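Sequence in, structure out. Go.
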Amino acid sequence: RKVYELVGAAAATETGRILGVGYSFNIITPRAVDWVRQNAGTLIRQWGDSSRDAIRRIIAQGFAEGTTASALTRQIKDTGIGLTWRQARAVLNMRHRLEDDGVPSSKIDARAERYFNRLLRDRAEMIARTEVTGAITNARLEAWQQATDKGLLDPTRWEKEWLATQDARVCMYCADLDGARAPVPDGVFVGDSGTNGGKGPGYHPRCRCTVMLVEIGSRRLP
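Output:
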């Protein structure tokens, strides 16, 4: 909730400055509540309904209480969520290799546990950070929607632009979407190669992209 509120307020301030008007961000709207209810926990796969429900409740509570991403990471991990099959298989393969090498079972157990915990921490962090990124994107879109509803932002004059972090870690999909533009607030981004980026970043786990408000026909951001 804190992330959503801070980003929404900042987006409203920024948008007001660009448009030369002033308005405040309203965090308690049906759209905001519905977005959290519908999107929290969508990254959870390969677990039963009880695990998904636990994650949804943790994220929803974190939204209401302003829980940080690091705290969400610990809470998600503490629910006992498992690994993906690919990750679990990696742990099993490591066990088999150690057994083939004649490593004592006690040492195998210790190393496998450390490996399991590292993978579990990585997955919990991925979920928490990706959920927060989604909240950041949606807060910006909500701020623009509120400005549109108030008649302050004219969708025929303004649009949104996708900005990717241009470094060695950028994925091919985000690189394709970099500089793409779409109608504000709910237009869908499409990259030069046809990549569908939805309404904004959060396109994939740990996405580091952002979205900005720009004037239609203006020069693309560097």
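Check: Helices lie at 2-19, 30-39, 49-65, 69-78, 85-100, 105-149, 172-177. The two ends are 31 Å apart (CA to CA).
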